[in-house]
Design brief:
This protein has 517 residues and is an alpha/beta fold. The chain has three domains: 235 residues, P-loop containing nucleotide triphosphate hydrolases (Rossmann fold); 174 residues, Rossmann fold (3-Layer(aba) Sandwich), CATH 3.40.50.300; 75 residues, no CATH class. It is 32% helix and 26% strand. The strands form six sheets. It has a six-stranded mixed sheet, with helices on both faces. Strands 18-21-22-15-23-24 form a six-stranded mixed sheet, sandwiched between helices. The radius of gyration is 24 Å and the shape is globular. The mean pLDDT is 87.
């Protein structure tokens, strides 16, 4: 008999209008990394939430180390040695790293917190597993990659031996992903067992021993990763052959749509004098895809906020179709040709407690088509939403009526992309547009971006995915420490060379380049 540490047998979980898990069986061996692969909305996160006690299944049995158990909540899961790093981290932003790690497991004496032993244990764990952190830093001041380390240390602090990672690389840079893969290998060497939810086939090939595939809530099969190709796994996941390369003709750029002229952005933090964006200039023309590549935290976010109006710039100007919009409102930019797929879908992309229909008209509800005398035309709004839901395959339990908060992360992303591409625009500013999406959805969005370009739109793409940058771009601008350090032709540059520019090891003389752009 196989040495299974976790067995989920015949699990069924239903929500209004949808069977999220339909009679699924998943078995985790002790000391393995087991990937759970599936499209957006296939039921992966739901299944792991059942294992972690966040949901109760309608049918099915869970066994831990051969014993049947009933997991009523996360405390039960922790008591059984099961820990989980959620896709959207569960951290208290104004607490320190150390406070977050011990939260719920505090040592108290005479009503006072005793943190000395906790600090010692946390520092020993961070040393042992190579998870270096600053215990006194506030969560709101550290990078997303560091926040993830805090989540992993939370599990280790609780002595969890079964670890669930839900889309752990969705918000990480390529370097942080490599580090996480090594951390996962180290954890397994120490005797931990890992369940790893992902869409990324490269990551499965890099670290997983076995992979179970779900499709539309049903179990498709389990394979040994070493003996199966990425193409075979993607076909199991989507149910059809998927093209992993982008097909496009050479660009034929037209007139200038976006002109960024000597933009600088200062840090809002006291005592920080270094510019986050330092004298950046470039143009994007109709009929081309310009990509800003760079490791996260090199000023891309602040540059995008300056262009869209979400943040202030300290100097410089932005012109849209020849009109200076530097001092114009966000709505003015949106109604004068700018569409924006934001980096943070929860903070800037969606109103989570609105339904899907209202989220799909957030930028247009005030148009005569959707309102009359300040009253919304609900019939028109829902008709429009139904069209986008069908066209972009946005999966939701109750269609246009679904509250967006209850949708999977990938389907939330699809909703934003659908809204921004569908409305009239001259330039589409797409920041990490495929973050958290499965291969089928990525293929669709890449095709849509090329279609937009060929129809005459200008596309400004900000991406951390090197394959996406190389496949989609007509021109690549590399950003490092707030400055544009290179302008590259994707046909002539190698991935390795691009990586050197992104890391700051190499730079071009950009004098005169901005004028040529």
């Amino acid at each position: 008999m196989d040495n299974y540490i976790i067995e989920m047998l015949g699990i069924t979980k239903e929500f209004p209008g949808i069977i999220a898990n339909d009679n699924i069986t998943l078995q985790l061996k002790k000391g393995e990394i087991h990937a759970l692969l599936g499209e957006n909305g296939a039921g992966k996160s739901t299944l792991m939430s059942v294992l972690f006690g966040l949901y109760q299944p309608e049918k099915g049995v869970i066994r831990v180390k051969g014993q049947e158990v009933r997991i009523k909540g996360p405390l039960d899961a922790n008591a059984l040695g099961i820990g989980m790093v959620h896709q959207h981290f569960k951290l208290v932003h104004n607490f320190t790293v150390l406070q977050n790690i011990v939260l719920g497991m505090e040592t108290v004496k005479h009503g006072l917190l005793k943190m000395d032993d906790a600090r010692k244990k946390v520092m020993e764990l961070s040393e042992r597993y190579g998870l270096y952190i600053d215990p006194d830093a506030l969560i709101e001041d550290i990078t997303v990659g560091m926040q993830q380390r805090v989540e992993i240390l939370k599990m280790l602090y609780r002595d969890n031996e079964i670890m669930i990672f839900d889309e752990p690389t969705a918000v990480l840079t390529p370097q942080e992903i490599d580090e996480l893969m090594q951390i996962m290998r180290n954890l397994v060497e120490e005797g931990k067992s890992i369940l790893f939810i992902t869409h990324k086939l490269d990551e499965i090939k890099a670290v997983a021993d076995r992979c179970s595939v779900l499709r539309r809530g049903k179990y498709i099969g389990t394979v040994d990763v070493a003996s199966v190709s990425k193409e075979e796994m993607s076909e199991m996941m989507v149910g059809r052959k998927v093209s992993l390369t982008v097909e496009k003709t050479p660009a034929s750029p037209g007139k200038t749509i976006l002109e960024v002229d000597h933009i600088s952005v200062k840090s809002h933090l006291e005592g920080h004098t270094k510019l986050l964006v330092n004298d950046v200039s470039f143009q994007v023309r109709s009929g081309e895809i310009v990509c800003i590549a760079g490791i996260d935290g090199n000023g891309q976010t602040e540059l995008v906020h300056a262009i869209t109006g979400l943040g202030a710039m300290s100097s410089g100007s932005v012109a849209l179709n020849g009109e200076d919009v530097t001092k114009k409102t966000i709505r003015h930019r949106n109604t004068h040709g700018l569409s924006h797929v934001p980096e943070d879908r929860h903070k800037h992309g969606l109103v989570l407690d609105y339904n899907l229909a209202y989220n799909l008209v957030l930028q247009q509800y005030f148009e005569p088509r959707f309102q009359k005398a300040s009253f919304l035309k609900n019939e028109e709004i829902y008709k429009y939403a139904d069209q986008l839901i069908e066209q972009y395959d946005i999966r939701s339990g109750e269609g246009a009526d679904t509250v967006v908060r209850s949708m999977s992360g990938g389907n939330q992303q699809k909703a934003i992309v659908a809204r921004e591409i569908a409305r009239e625009h001259d330039i589409l500013l797409a920041v990490q547009p495929t973050r958290g999406l499965d291969v089928g959805a990525i293929e669709y969005i890449h095709r849509e971006l090329v279609k937009q370009r060929d129809a005459g739109a200008a596309i400004l793409l900000i991406s951390l995915e090197l394959d996406e940058v190389m496949n989609l771009s007509d021109r690549i601008l590399v950003m490092f420490e707030g400055s544009i350090v290179a302008e590259l032709d994707p046909q002539e540059v190698t991935v390795q060379e691009l990586g050197l520019y992104m890391a700051g090891s190499k730079r071009q003389d950009m004098a005169g380049k901005a004028g040529e752009a």
